[in-house]
Amino acid sequence: MRTAGWVSRLRGRLDLSVAAVVFTVPERRLREMDTATGPCVPTGNRQRALAGALRQEYGELPRHTAALYTVLTGLPPEGAMAIVDRQGDGTLHRCTDAFVDAMADEQELLHGLLDEDLADGDEDRTRLAARVDELERAWLAATGWPRDLVSLSGRLARMEWARLARERGHPLYAWHGPSRRMYVAVPSRATSP
Q: What is the percent of the chain with per-residue pLDDT over 70, rounded to a whole number?
């Protein structure tokens, strides 16, 4: 654990030095990943990683990931994930079938609420927004998230990955470890001679 990250957590702030990445690939593709560095880092001579760096959820620890299982099922978080591999500061978990099903079922419910909102001409998507807000509040309350984290709605995208994993018959993984830098393209003004 990096010192700056430990201090951030101690102060109740989001620790940007760690991240979680939820992804789905056929099991045979796991050999393309180094558990110590995670799925956002290409290994060997590969040009692409298993998951893009934008998929990182900063400051998320395994207990945070598992808390979503409790929110969706009412069951203890220990039933959410099983450790597949641990190297260095990285840990790869496989989400249990019960966790995948809970997320995929919830995602299908959200799709249904969106369809209802659209059918009623509800441009504010009131039903969908209410359910997402309910999930977000329950997940925030289920475990000790950093005080400066006010929204988890972006993290709920993992439910779509769960739906896709179930549809394709692939495992769903949750990797936790050191975050990767993201590079941002910044436009500059070109000067003409």
A: 88
* Average pLDDT score over the chain: 90
Alpha carbon 128 to its chain's center: 20
* Mean pLDDT confidence for 1-19: 64
Residue type for position 72:
L
- H helix intervals, the chain: 3-10, 62-73, 97-119, 126-142, 158-168
- Phi first, then psi: give them for residue 93, nearest 5 degrees: -110, 150
Question: Which long-range CB contacts under 8 A does 48-55 form with residues at least 24 apart?
Answer: 50/23, 50/25, 51/21, 51/23, 53/180, 53/181, 53/182, 54/182, 55/21, 55/22, 55/23
